[in-house]
Amino acid sequence: MKLKLIFLTVVLAIGQLTMAQVKFEAKVSKKKLGVNERLRVDFEMNKDGDNFTPPTFFGFTVVGGPNQSISNSWINGKRSYSKTFSYFLEPTKRGKFTIKQATIEIDGQVYKTLPVTVEVTGAVDKPKDGNNTDFVASENLHLVAEVSKSDPYLNEAITVVYKLYVSPRISVSNWRELDSPKYSDFWSQAIDMKQLKIENGTYNGEPYRYVVLRKTVLYPQKTGKLNIEPLTLTVSVDVPTKRRDIFGGRLYTTVNKTVAAGNRTINVKSLPEQGKPVDFSGAVGSFDFKVTTNKTTLDATESLDAKVTVSGNGNLKLFDLPKLNVPSGLEQYEPEHDERVRTNLTGMAGNISDSYTLVPQYKGKYPLPSISFTYFDLKTEAYKRITSDEIIINVRTGPDGGDAITTTESTNTGKRVVTQTGNQFRFLKLNANLKPIAKEYFFKSTTFWVSLTAPLLAIPLFLFFGKKREERLSDIRGNRVRKADKLARKYLSEAKKNLGNQKQFYIAMERALHNYLKAKLHIQTSDMSKDRIQRLLKEREVEDATAIEFIALLESCEFARYTPSSTTAMQQDYDKASRVIATIDKQL
Predict the structure, then answer these.
(1) Which H or E element spans position 5?
(2) Crossing angle between the packed helical segments 530-539 and 544-559, to the nearest 10 degrees
(3) Could you say which of 404, 435, 468 is where a domain stops?
């Protein structure tokens, strides 16, 4: 009987220990996702606790949560309890990120979750995050990449145009770049978009408005199938709801939507091997070629410029110019390379050149032999060769060199090849006719008397500026104003240095705005409520529009702590801050 009681006691104790075991763990909806997808993280526990502390979620932006849910049930006399804190996260960039430990206190003991590693890749074609995107926004907002040609030749220009299509059913209030394509297998050049223009068009047969966000010219540097990575944006979309205001107007809700242009694949053809010249350097397009000199008649030891120029349309920056052949009687210097190339939707256009400086040493006639340039013509899909004309340089006067110049070969054209064998520098003047410089003494000179009297004359100036300095130091209020104004300029310059670092940029800009208010309105940071700032600016006769812009800048600094921001948006905020501060200065 005692044995049975002991056995029953042990079983009950084990059961109590099992029931008392606390579980606290982190679960993610997926461990690999695209930069345009969203992630759900659940922190689940089987017993209620206090002081829940989430991790910092580095590499992500919290777009939803924390949402709390509790499940409590009894099955066959056994209690089942579950409490969950849920967060919805949006990646800020690619890479591998670790969701660190969350903590909670249960029955006086602190429990921690295990870290979870999540990999964020490039944007996927079809994001699978339906629980976190508004269906209406998804169906009425599209980012499209239009490629001008899907099967170009190697080094042939193609254009990628990114268009954002927006249905009339919704409106877009703001957008920012989340991830930019790398173009790792291409030479790329972005075309400057001076102004975004809204145009009407169609998407899948339906009327849409669209705006061209970016135009990029690409020159493929490899053959075969190459991938053009997608452009990814985060867009603030205003979506109509079923609710209406008291006047019957439809109410809208703002949805942050991530859209991507999708991967595009092109098949790059290699240039034909048949008929390919030996001296072909990779030029593809339509070109002209010439060799020119600025003079053909000159004297010995004078210089002339010979220029090798290629002009036209094609990959002008991606090949080498042919070298100039110079007779031995001409001294040649390293060429100076010049590029005058502009890039538009058709590719590169303009000219490139190498300028050689040539100096003849003796009189005579020097032939510059003709040289040739080969390129692949895209219109005829064949190789072409352009040959320059031969140029004769006539050196009229100068040392004949005696034995220094010997004719080694005569041709039917009467030209001769010149070689140098004697003393090339015998005509240089060796006697410089130098003259001694007269000695000058410092004592009793003008410099001596100026040095002697200058300290005496400076004494009144020191007394005057010392008095002004004492007056300035005694002006306590003025010193505070000047110090705050100096700090505002310092922080604005610090904000400019941190362009690209979102957190540091907006902290520095907010400090600059606060110190500017200290300087102009004579208030402390603790008194800087938005209503008080707006009222004080109005009392100082600052225009309402300017005051509203200043308040909007402060709100932008606060909002930027919780949402991702691009370098372009930060530059716009910086320019706006400089402009608003200058405007308030004028109005004050």
Answers:
(1) helix 2-20
(2) 160
(3) 404
**522 and 490 in contact (C-beta within 8 Å)?**
no
Q: Which of 201, 216, 242, 198 is nearest to 160 (CA)?
A: 216
Containing domain of residue 261, as a range? 133-268
DSSP string, 119-170: EEESPPSS---GGGS-HHHHHHEEEEEEES-SSPBTT--EEEEEEEEE-TTS
What is the distance, to the nearest Å, from the Cα of residue 283 to the centroid of all Cα atoms in its chain? Answer: 29
Domain count, the chain: 4
Write the DSSP string, 419-466: -B-S-TTTTS-------PPPP--STTSHHHHHHHHHHHHHHHHHHHHH
The packing angle between helices 476-497 and 502-521, to 10°, is 160
- φ, ψ dihedrals at 146, nearest 5°: -100, 120
Asked if residue 212 belongs to a domain, the reply is yes
Given a cut of 80, whether residue 444 has pLDDT beyond it is no
Higher pLDDT among residues 195 and 227, named by residue: 227
45, 52, 78 from 81: Cα distances, Å: 8, 17, 10
Instruction: Give 436-444 contacts, CB < 8 A, sequence gap 24+.
Output: none
Q: How far apart are CA 312 and CA 319, in angstroms?
A: 13
Q: What percentage of the chain exceeds 90 in pLDDT?
A: 22
Q: At what angle do helices 544-559 and 567-587 cross, to 10 degrees?
A: 150
**CB 327 within 8 Å of CB 419:** no
In order of 327, 330, 434, the CA distances from 427 in angstroms are 22, 17, 19
The answer to the question of residue 308 being in a domain is yes
Question: DSSP secondary structure string, 212-257?
Answer: EEEEEEEEE-S-EEEEEPPPEEEEEEEEEEEEE-TTSPEEEEEEEE
Backbone φ and ψ of 354, nearest 5°: -120, 125
The pLDDT tens digits for 485-536 are: 665 666 677 777 777 777 788 888 888 877 777 777 776 666 667 777 778 7
Residue for token pair 């920012």: 176
User: Could you give the CA distance from residue 44 to residue 23 in angstroms, rounded to a whole number?
Assistant: 8
Using an 8 Å Cβ cutoff, are 134 and 38 in contact? no
pLDDT tens, 568-584?
A: 777 877 888 877 777 77
Give the pLDDT score at 430: 65
The confidence score (pLDDT) of residue 407 equals 36
Amino acid at 402: G
Q: Are 12 and 91 in contact (CB under 8 A)?
A: no
Per the DSSP assignment, residues forming a β-bridge with 147 are: 160
Could you tell me the CATH number of the domain that includes residue 488? 1.20.120
Name the domain boundary from 76, 92, 121.
121
Q: What are the residues whose beta carbons fall under 8 Å from the beta carbon of 558, sequence distance 6 or more?
A: 510
Q: What is the pLDDT of residues 453-474, one digit of tens each?
A: 888 778 888 788 877 777 777 7
> Is the domain of 399 the same as that of 317?
yes
